[in-house]
Design goal:
It is a single chain. With 196 residues, the chain is of the alpha/beta class. Helix content is 31%, strand content 33%. It is built from 3 helices and 9 strands; from the N terminus they run H-E-E-E-E-E-H-E-E-E-E-H. The strands form 2 sheets. Strands 2, 3, 6, 7, 8 and 9 form a 6-stranded mixed beta sheet that branches.
Length: 196
């Protein structure tokens, strides 16, 4: 009898727990809104493999991250990336570079030619907003020649103020800052280096 009573209590608890309302979540993707307006830059004809964009571990999940000036990380439970940052940044960065540097054949993922090609790697340390309404993007990148030599490397650090509150504004500001300040700057540096 006690066993049956215990089993009924457990079942009632499970049914109640499963019936609890779940807060709806909002999912966001980065968008390159100005891709069609990009100005192409001339370079020699070469092939470059874009390595997957590496993001710091605290940015690797689906939660959109806010960070305080004291370094406290806040992960949103209801405002999420529809796709984790690394594949989003990799795919959209390749699209922007293909449009900006059209003389370069860009390879991503596993599709590689048989001969050696140059590689571009980008590491992202910061990609978030703080509680004061400022977005932070920082990291480093390097272009290695087909001979395995460092052609150029540099760091990037971008801050921009959010024009209004909300995750949608934050995602739009992160997107425009990534493409218009980080990737366009990388493209100009690569074109300048290759045209020497």
């Amino acid at each position: 009898m006690k066993w049956r009573m215990f089993l009924m209590v457990v079942i009632a608890w499970l049914v109640t727990a499963c019936a609890a309302p779940v807060a709806p979540s909002n999912e966001y993707l980065l968008m390159d809104a100005e891709l069609s307006d990009v100005e192409a830059q001339a370079t020699p004809v070469i092939a470059v493999q874009l390595m997957p964009v590496y993001v710091a571990n605290y940015l690797a999940g689906n939660e959109i991250v806010l960070v305080t000036t004291q370094g406290s990380v806040h992960r949103s439970k209801s405002n999420l990336w529809a796709e984790t940052l690394s594949p989003q940044l990799t795919r959209l960065t390749q699209q922007r570079l293909e449009k900006t540097l059209p003389n370069i054949t860009w390879f991503g993922g596993q599709r590689l030619p048989a001969n050696a090609i140059a590689t571009l790697s980008i590491d992202v340390d910061d990609f978030y907003a703080d509680l004061d309404g400022v977005i932070h993007i920082s990291g480093r990148w390097q272009l290695i020649s087909e001979l395995g030599e460092l052609s150029i490397s540099n760091t990037f650090s971008v801050k921009d103020i959010l024009k209004s509150d909300g995750y949608s504004t934050m995602v739009q500001t992160l997107s425009s800052s990534w493409f218009n300040h980080v990737i366009d700057s990388i493209a100009k540096d690569i074109a300048r280096t290759l045209n020497r």
